[in-house]
Automatic annotation (TrEMBL), chains A, B:
Name this polypeptide is given: Xylan alpha-1,2-glucuronidase
Gene Ontology BP term (one): xylan catabolic process
Domain Alpha glucuronidase N-terminal: 29-137
Family to which this protein belongs: Belongs to the glycosyl hydrolase 67 family.
Active site: E299 (proton donor), D373 (proton acceptor), E401 (proton acceptor)
Catalysed conversion reaction: Hydrolysis of (1->2)-alpha-D-(4-O-methyl)glucuronosyl links in the main chain of hardwood xylans
Gene Ontology annotations for the cellular component aspect, listed alphabetically: extracellular region
Signal peptide limits: 1-23
Domain Glycosyl hydrolase family 67 C-terminal intervals: 462-685
Alphabetical UniProt keywords: Carbohydrate metabolism, Glycosidase, Hydrolase, Polysaccharide degradation, Signal, Xylan degradation
The EC number(s) this enzyme carries: 3.2.1.131
Length: 712, 712
């Protein structure tokens, strides 16, 4: 072996195994501000953006200005030409903005205007918060390489309260998330404020998120103790200048657990006094505290029904104490009795429609997109449009509890779009879920939308590098539900991976097809709740033990006669809770879209689908197409090798390999199981399951993160 | 308010609030390779280090070369002068090294030689692993700004197996650590290998750590399932080129729990067969698997005594199956009966001395530095020197279970040094613990030292920025127990915070006094085990509930008569387990050092100390001096503002504030409690406790990280 002899400079990049290992670790999310590669575009930006003219007195304004400088420095290297142009930034009452005589009247408190004024560019708003949002939007124009010539963006949020819900425990475990420990380092607070709290708040603000619920809906009263309120205050102080209000979950039994009372009965005067005092105390720590999310009388959580009271009486107890401070209550509709009286699908509707009109004005019913539980696809929840007197907070799940955790690539915006655009017909055609939520259908003033966060203390925040697209998309849709999932995917991809056309086209295609893909390989054609019990990662169609509505067989009803849940009038009639127009559409297997077919109908294995195929064949082919699509995603991703950084490429490539194995496993396990009933051959083009059914039934995953049955 | 109008370039550094928030986040540990600020020194280095001449065929050699390039690039910017000098790097059998005719015969397999040869500098070893260690040592010379003129370092490790023990669970919780989740992302393995695994291995290799036990001593048999062995293999493959062997903890009842057997009796043929097969299977995944650490029949863990067998029979079962593969067993001496027969201090000695001679040659008794449990200070464990036939793995605790977790600044090397230098007199004077462990006292070939890691997935690895000094010091002492804690502190400080004289002097002084400080404000003068039960953070001198030897009162024995544990012949006679020379020294309150006084003696409150003060006064003054020293550390640290980066400065400053509050609390709680017995006034210079005793007794911390009773 002859020794090599090289000057150092030549060797550095040839052998530096780990030297650049953390160059693109994902920490910067979509706020990377990498230099614009297109030289002529960069030149044009440099010549049209002049020096900044701004007033920055509040912390929020200072943050806005710092972000603008940081963004421009990164994107353009700070070499702006002195062309006489100026970038005018500020609120309408600042002199340099006022003299432009812009009409800002439609912007409200949070909206912003990006426009040109003669040679100058303008970022204007009515508040510093609006300016901050405008700055992020302006930078987004550059990050996504849009022209500035005719710049004119005027927007304000359609929903007032746009919240992340963290299912984070005080022990730093996170329910249903896999991205490491909770970002909230409770033990170090209030002494040490992690720098990344600022970056969390920046990222949220950049997409318009203006509230965060710090604690799990499966709640712990300890967060209401003074020792923890100090910590909450430190977080609130950190988040406030980014326009982010802090909320908590309220454990209904807190008066007993930490208050020393013997009851938590919401009508008991001592309980009312305790909560009133406690809420007043919270406001001494956090003067702009947002309010509470409450999961009551559901899955073991305490609630008013434990004392013979109803949800309205429970919610109103908290709402009345919050009202003087301007706080509000999001009372979750995800409730179902421990005794199964009827199709679980129907219970929230039954409970809450009869209480409509009894809630205080500062109560919103927090309602998941569908009536079961964040399945890969659900028809919209029948409660939307069914409580004219009570607003709804739409609860979406960003973390992928039933969709492969942080291992599977699933862009969720198309699913959310489907819910938002669904028509409740509550006030005639066009009464979409989005319009129920934004208050326009019933004229509600209290409007809110919540996303269950997929964030942890992993360096890249979300584990899967693509998981951040869902955090991003949630914020963007919460601000403007009319944005399309395609537009949002395009923005996020450009900001996260750059503007190279092949990169953008490939990733966008992967993102946009990914949701249909996960549905196809796990729970296609309206199937639902066939996941492995407990950790919810992987299939468990055979699961039939314990409480029936926690099994899989309860939902798919597979037998030799066929498969599916009859929710029409001949079955549970959950369909009857929807408007007549919906009932008509979904009432027959012929009129309903295939994607919801087995959600509402029980059909023979040989039922002839719209495609002309039998149900069994269509089911098999759909499972197979999901698997094939994952394989194809792997190839698409491989084609980008060298076009994006090695670090993120390697991570996604590894995850796609596993997703493919998981998808095959899901398909094989389900088909092997359903085949025991259908007894029909697998159609051409479908790979029969690799192993006998017992193999899949016996396979057990250990220590799946985020499962509350685990320590983690 | 007039708008500001500034060119961008001027604004960037004035308002960029968060722009540089992560510049010094601690991730790089002591391998920062920042440019050498001293221009003349840099010039001199540049002129004496020529181009590298090396052979790099193995992965280890490639890593060594890459590290060298990375280090030189960082430190010197790659601008090395062509002075005719060459940096010769390689093993003795490589041509360019062989021709130098160096004597490498004393280096063994891991040692290295740094030297000059004519104009050239040389990094030579017998193996690529030795070269890797040599590269880190060479870079350390530059990082600590030592001259290269007379470079000559020749060293090899005194202990063969230098291991981290991770008390990490498969759920990613970590027992007794506060630095976030486990670094081992089990669920993502084996698919995704985190880039930071490489940096973990680099950091370990840089200080000579050559083994890692991946799992908690409170063990989980699941890690032995094939599903997890695949994951273990992925980690082993990653760590191997850095010279790091992988070990696991063996749950003694695994044959029952995952093997389907009805017994785990170590003499049962089916059990022997199961372990033999299992161990053979492990080696198919990890051909250089290191072996097992076992905690048996201790604190609820299963073990051979459950089947009427002894520790030797248990250890030998595993050892015999490991032997053909070259693996070994570290069988922990941290055992005590569930029924309290005698002073817990005595039990390990009693159990293991009678088994001496019965262990297989590939068994080492893993023995903590002291006989109780990682107290802030303990006299050395009497087992050292007491088993001439059986080697000991010295177990040190890097994580600060009883010393403020990742919140308090405590540099542990002085404490470890105290143990290593303690004389057992086993073969006459000079039979130090270090020499028992390095095998020289009894001629043992199997030598090992283990440190319980303080590492988690926090970005800076250890939570407290100073916590990394203990990881560093452990590795350095494990390599060479003759290094002084001062030398190690000097190295670490320069590598971590730079070479500015005021920075180095201040931080070194803080580090070197910090251990005595924590002892003084928590458990001075030989007091021990007076921590809060369960989470072990904070004081609990009043704790007297439950199992006596888990209480505080069992150990301090405070009453109106005095305080302390009589372990002389008039008491438990634990002292009688030591050599006569030690018994003589520690046998009277007059001859024993004050630091161990109340460990062995129960004394009247008015006992006259060497200082002339009464015991009560001395106790009070020592507590006070601990608190005062923390306050002083805060001032010392404040004086460095501006001399080190803002980010790490802010974090340590915040932590020191809290440490001061905690130290006061500890002192006040203990003095308020002991005062109920002593009934004597607080001496001048001591601040009386701020609150009545009840205040301290009623104070409860919630959700302290690392406490296994917590989810986290």
């Amino acid at each position: 072996m002859r020794p090599i002899r090289l000057p150092i400079a030549l060797l550095i990049f040839s052998l530096g195994l780990a030297a650049s290992a953390l160059a693109e670790d994902g920490y910067r999310l979509w706020l990377r501000y990498e230099p614009i590669a297109d030289a002529s575009l960069a030149k044009s930006y440099r010549s049209s953006i002049g020096p900044i003219e701004a007033v920055a007195t509040s912390d929020t304004a200072k943050i806005a200005l710092a972000e603008l400088e940081r963004g421009l420095e990164g994107l353009l290297g700070g070499e702006l030409k002195r062309t006489g142009a100026t970038l005018l930034v500020g609120t309408g009452d600042a002199k340099h903005i006022a003299k432009l005589k812009l009409d800002l009247s439609g912007l409200g408190e949070e909206g912003y205007l990006l426009t040109r004024h003669k040679k100058n560019l303008v970022i204007a708003a009515n508040t510093d918060q609006g300016v901050l949002y405008g700055v992020f939007a302006f930078l987004r124009q550059l990050q996504t390489q849009r022209p500035l010539e005719n710049l004119h963006v005027e927007t304000s949020p359609k929903v007032d309260h746009r919240l992340l819900n963290h299912w984070d425990n005080l022990t730093r475990t996170v329910e249903r998330s896999m991205a490491g420990a909770s970002i909230f380092n409770w033990f170090d607070l209030p002494y040490y404020v992690e720098p990344y709290y600022h970056d969390y708040a920046r990222a949220c603000a950049s997409v318009g998120i203006n509230g965060t619920v710090l604690t799990n809906v499966n709640s712990n009263a300890t967060v209401l103790r003074p020792q923890f309120l100090e910590k909450v205050a430190a977080l609130a102080d950190t988040f406030r200048p980014y326009g982010i209000q802090v909320y908590l979950t309220a454990r209904f039994s807190a008066p007993v657990e930490i208050g020393g009372l013997e009851t938590a009965d919401p009508l008991d005067p001592a309980v009312i006094e305790w909560w009133t005092d406690k809420i007043n105390e919270i406001y001494t720590y956090v003067p702009d505290f947002g309010g509470f999310v409450v999961k009551a009388n559901s899955e073991g959580q305490p609630g008013p029904q434990s004392y013979g009271r109803d949800h309205a009486e429970g919610a109103n107890l908290l709402a009345r104490a919050l009202a003087p401070h301007g706080g509000f209550v999001m009372w979750r509709a995800f409730v179902y009795d421990f005794e199964i009286k009827e199709d679980r699908h129907k219970q929230a509707y039954t409970e809450f429609t009869q209480l409509d009109g009894q809630f205080e004005p500062n109560v919103s019913i927090q309602t998941k997109n569908g009536a079961i539980d964040f399945m890969p696809r659900e028809p919209f929840h029948p409660l939307f449009g069914a409580t004219p007197e009570t607003p709804h907070t739409l609860e979406l799940q960003i973390t992928q509890e039933y969709m492969g955790g942080d291992i599977h690539l699933v862009y969720l915006a198309p699913m959310w779009e489907e819910t938002l655009e669904a028509d409740t017909f509550a006030r005639g055609a066009g009464s979409t879920v989005a319009k129920v939520v934004d208050g326009s259908v019933f004229g509600h003033e209290l409007t809110a939308i919540a996303g269950v966060a997929n964030i942890g203390n992993e360096r890249n925040w979300t584990g899967h590098p693509m998981g951040a697209s869902n955090w991003y998309a949630f914020g963007r849709l919460a601000w403007d539900h009319q944005l399309s999932s395609q537009e949002i995917a395009d923005e996020w991809t450009r900001m996260t991976f750059g503007n190279a056309p092949d990169v953008v086209a490939t990733i966008e295609e992967m993102l946009l097809e990914s949701h249909q893909t996960v549905v196809d390989y796990s729970m296609p054609l309206g199937l639902h709740h066939i996941m492995y019990p407990g950790h919810h990662y992987g299939p468990g169609p055979w699961h039939d033990q314990g409480r029936p509505d926690w099994t899989s067989t309860y939902y798919h009803n597979a037998s030799e006669d066929g498969i599916g849940f009859d929710r029409t009038a001949t079955g549970s009639d959950a369909l009857g809770q929807y408007a007549p127009e919906v009932v008509e559409k979904w009432g027959t297997p012929e009129s309903i879209e295939d994607k919801y077919l087995l959600w509402f109908h029980h059909l023979d294995w040989d039922y002839e689908m719209k495609s002309g195929k039998t149900l069994w064949n269509e089911l098999c082919l759909t499972y197979q197409s999901g698997v094939d699509r994952v394989a194809e995603m792997g190839q698409q991703w491989d084609s980008l090798q060298g076009s994006i950084d090695a670090q993120r490429h390697a991570r996604v490539a590894a995850l796609l390999k596993r997703q493919l194995e998981d998808a095959k496993f899901y398909k094989d396990a389900c088909l092997a199981y359903f085949h025991t009933f259908s007894q029909r051959p697998y159609p051409a083009g479908v790979n029969a399951p690799e192993y006998p059914l017992e193999h899949y039934k016996n396979f057990e995953l250990y220590h799946v993160p985020g499962h509350p049955g685990e320590q983690w």
